[in-house]
Write a structure and sequence with these properties.
This protein is α+β, with helices and mostly antiparallel strands. It is 38% helix and 24% strand. It contains 6 helices and 9 strands, in the order ααβαββαββαββαββ. The protein has helices at 2-45, 62-73, 97-107, 136-148, 189-205, 226-236, and strands spanning 83-92, 111-119, 125-134, 152-157, 163-174, 209-213, 217-224, 241-246, 250-253. The strands form 2 sheets. Strands 5, 6, 7, 8 and 9 form a 5-stranded antiparallel β-sheet that branches. The longest helix has 44 residues, at 2-45.
Length: 286
């Protein structure tokens, strides 16, 4: 009997403790919810600004410094000297030869300044004169490739040879003095004659010829070296160059080692050595 009473008392105590704990937990939950809501409202009303961290300039990395040191301390490669080369190709007169020759030079990186191709006195034989600039080592390889072509008979190098070089020029120059409104047809006739007279004097200085004369233009022909043609065009530019056509360089070797146009070389003086001295014993007595 007493045991039953104690058991009931224990059960009542347990239920009371459970109820008390639930009440405490509900109250605590209410306090947490209220505090959390208040914190959210506070955060919304007072937004916090994040501070930026101080930036530390560490400078260039070790790899970047190493690369810059290598670039600045490495000596530059020496530039290959470009020389002016004059090649004369004797080829069979057939289609496609000129394109093959220029293709080889373009593949080697040569810039062809002038190119003259024409027939010769021999039927079926053509002659091509090329003036180009480039290194001498590459030029030797290009010459060998040109000689390997089937239509090419021979390749002559006139780069270091005494040659006669000429170039032809046709240039149309204005001789009319423009009026104030820029109309050349309304220029004065006397002014045109004075300009034509000055142009003829300039052409005579370079041994040129005035081939055609019109009301406002004149055509001058000149056959000379390339540098003289450049000089003539520079002096004729104030007249007003309308058109200009250049044939390109034509070259031919001189006739022999000494010609009438070259300065005579002084003959070497004869020197007597000790071995070539006369024997005094063979001389008659004095």
């Amino acid at each position: 009997m007493i045991g039953r009473v104690l058991a009931r008392t224990a059960l009542i105590g347990r239920s009371t403790v459970r109820g008390t704990s639930r009440t405490v937990s509900n109250a605590a939950a209410g306090k947490v919810n209220a505090s959390a809501t208040t914190a959210m409202e506070y955060k919304q009303q007072h937004p916090r600004q994040l501070r930026r961290l101080p930036r530390v300039d560490s400078g260039p990395s070790a790899a970047e410094q190493a690369v810059s040191n290598i670039l600045y301390n490495t000596p530059t490669a020496p530039k290959m000297q470009t020389e002016r080369h004059i090649l004369d190709c004797l080829a069979q007169d057939e289609p496609g030869v000129l394109s093959r020759v220029t293709g080889i030079m373009a593949a080697r990186g040569f810039n062809i300044d002038t190119l003259v191709a024409s027939k010769t006195e021999v039927p079926g034989l053509s002659r091509m004169t090329l003036v180009l600039k480039g290194p001498a080592i590459v030029m030797e390889q290009a010459k060998k490739q040109l000689e390997d072509l089937v239509p090419i008979w021979a390749v002559l190098d006139y780069s270091h040879t005494q040659i006669i070089e000429r170039e032809s020029l046709l240039v149309k120059v204005s001789i009319a003095k423009p009026s104030a409104d820029g109309d050349a047809a309304a220029s004065d006739f006397m002014d045109s004659q004075e300009r034509l007279r000055a142009l003829r004097q300039l052409a005579d200085l370079f041994k040129g010829q005035v081939l055609d004369v019109g009301p406002s233009t004149a055509v001058v022909s000149l056959n000379a070296k390339s540098d003289r043609i450049d000089a003539f065009l520079k002096l004729a530019r104030p007249f007003g160059i309308l058109e200009a056509v250049r044939s390109g360089l034509m070259a031919m070797p001189r006739s022999g080692s000494a010609t009438m146009f070259e300065s005579e070389q002084s003959a070497p003086q004869a020197t007597i050595t000790h071995d070539e001295a006369p024997d005094l014993s063979n001389l008659p007595p004095s």
